[in-house]
Amino acid sequence: MRIYIKIVIRCFLVLLLITEFACNTTNNEIANDGKIVAKINSSSLYQSDLKEMAQKGLSKSDSIAFNKNYINNWAKNEIFYQQALNYLSEEELNISKEIEDYKKAVLSYKFETKLIEEKLDTTISAVQIEDYYTANSQNFLLKNNIVKVLYIKTPINIPNLDKLKKLCYSSSIKDAEQLKTMCIQYANNYFMNDNTWLMFDDLKKEIPQLKEVPEYTVQNGKIFEFTDATSFYFLKIIEVKSKNTLSPLTFEKNNIKSMLINERKQKLINTIKKDFFDNAKTNKELEIYN
Predict the structure, then answer these.
(1) Regarding the domain delimited by 142-241, which CATH topology (the fold level of the hierarchy) does it fall under?
(2) CA distance 225 to 236
(3) Gap between the Cα atoms of 5 and 105, Å rounded
(4) What are the structural domain ranges in the chain?
(5) Minimal CA–CA distance to 77: which of 49, 107, 119, 98?
(6) What is the dihedral of CA 88, 90, 92, 97, to 10 degrees?
């Protein structure tokens, strides 16, 4: 619905510009008494128009190029518009109803947005998220594999690469801190948050060699080491969730929050519309004829 409204807004602006062209052809002649820089039949482009569009900080040559490009674009659009006036029928040229419809849609959208900003409660509790997840679990089946990992990519020629590899295999908290220090110093990229789920396909983009690995071999505790001409890659699969299984709540938390807020938005607007409708009937502002 919101995508539709955005499209409507764009269409409305286009139609509004067309209408302004028609209305302003004569008005421009009256309002602008400056130097004319281009003219097509009765439509003129003035020096003052260029000044309004001028970009600050341009060199003299860039400014000349900008003005030339702007004039050419204005001329092309104006010629095209004037051709449209000659080509379209009188019925097709009458767009007042379309403009009125688009105006209503745009202003209604702006009003809806302000109401949502002023009245919508966006506070979503952890309990509400969990309840929604439980009640709609069938909608949260994974479409792709996700993983928790330890991932490190370093240049192949870093000092103490063997030490880094050894630290990668260690389960010691102290060694983990030392590994992180080395990653900060040497790594091109690394990921050491074992509480966060990642899309396995995103890892394939990071590690090209993973594309050759059968996904059924990607299991909890699996370790991969790869090297190429410039880099060393280390990947430990801490936990994996396969596609078509239930997605973890932690992975869906933000999605569920957005869903709940969108539901509230729709409910709020529907309630307000009904209140306006009922008030109009009560106050006899609304008349429906059979």
Answers:
(1) Chitinase A; domain 3 (3.10.50)
(2) 9
(3) 7
(4) 2-95, 126-136+247-280, 142-241
(5) 49
(6) 150
Q: Which residues pair with 234 in a beta bridge?
A: 152, 225
Answer whether 277's CB lies under 8 Å from 286's CB: yes
| Whether this model's pTM surpasses 0.85 | no
Predicted confidence at residue 23, as pLDDT, reads 46
pLDDT tens-digit series, residues 61-120: 888 888 888 899 999 999 999 999 999 999 999 999 999 999 999 999 999 999 999 999
Only one residue has tokens 């869906």, namely 252
* DSSP assignment letter at 236: E
Ramachandran angles phi, psi of 287, nearest 5° = -125, 125
Q: How far apart are CA 287 and CA 290, in angstroms?
A: 10
* Cβ burial, residue 208 (10 Å; 0-12/13-18/19+): exposed
Q: Which residues contact 34 (CB under 8 A, 6 or more apart)?
A: 46, 47, 48
pLDDT given at position 25: 44
Q: Which helix (H) or strand (E) holds 207?
A: none
Other beta carbons within 10 Å of 133 = 19
Q: Rounded CA gap, 241 and 140, in Å?
A: 12
| Mean of pLDDT over the chain | 88
